Amino acid sequence: MSADEFQSIYTTHVTVSGGRTGSVSTDDGRLDLAVSMPKAMGGDDGPGTNPEQLFGAGYGACFLSALKGTIMRAKAKVGEPSVVASVSLTKNSVPKYRLHVDLEVTIPEADAELATQLVATAHQLCPYSEALRGNASVDLSVKSGGSVSKLEQA
Fold first, then answer.
1. What parts of the chain have a pLDDT lower than 50?
2. Which of 115, 124, 134, 143 has the fewest C-beta atoms lying within 10 Å of its C-beta?
3. 49 phi and psi, to 5 degrees?
């Protein structure tokens, strides 16, 4: 296998019924949720989750894992990092829909330069970031040691 070939390391199967007003469940039973449309999109804001929340959870968890791996490889002592993912569904006048994601990353005990470098590296490694690159807008902000910095839109 060449370095350019990818080998599957994990596959999940998610069954969706009803679209934005239905349900989602995994074949192993670990996820079984109702899906509701938010009022902002004309729904009734029912008891279920929505695709943007699910995407934010997945992206945030994956990005944090990439960041923790980056921190470990750098042997940096930076405290426990965290990520808040804000996912927006946007549209233009066509209408064409796109996602916009704001990732707010906190690295409590790192100086601003190191924190920014760690986040930039994690953004290159995270498969969600890779999938969105060129397809959605992602803004990264980094909180560290009392300061906040923004990375260029990626």
1. none
2. 134
3. -85, -175
Between CA 126 and CA 20 the distance in angstroms is: 27
pLDDT tens by residue, 71-93 = 999 999 999 999 999 999 999 98
Q: Which two tokens stand for residue 29?
A: 């039973």
> Domains in the chain, ordered, with CATH?
8-49 (2.20.25.10), 51-151 (3.30.300.20)
In the prediction, which pLDDT does 17 show? 97
The pLDDT, as a whole number, for residue 150 is 87
Write out the DSSP string of the chain: --TT---------EEEESGGGSEEEETTSS-EEEB---GGGTS---SSB-HHHHHHHHHHHHHHHHHHHHHHHHT------EEEEEEEEEE-SS--EEEEEEEEEE-TTS-HHHHHHHHHHHHHH-HHHHHHTTTSEEEEEEEETTEEEEEPP-
Please give the model's pTM, rounded to 2 decimal places: 0.92
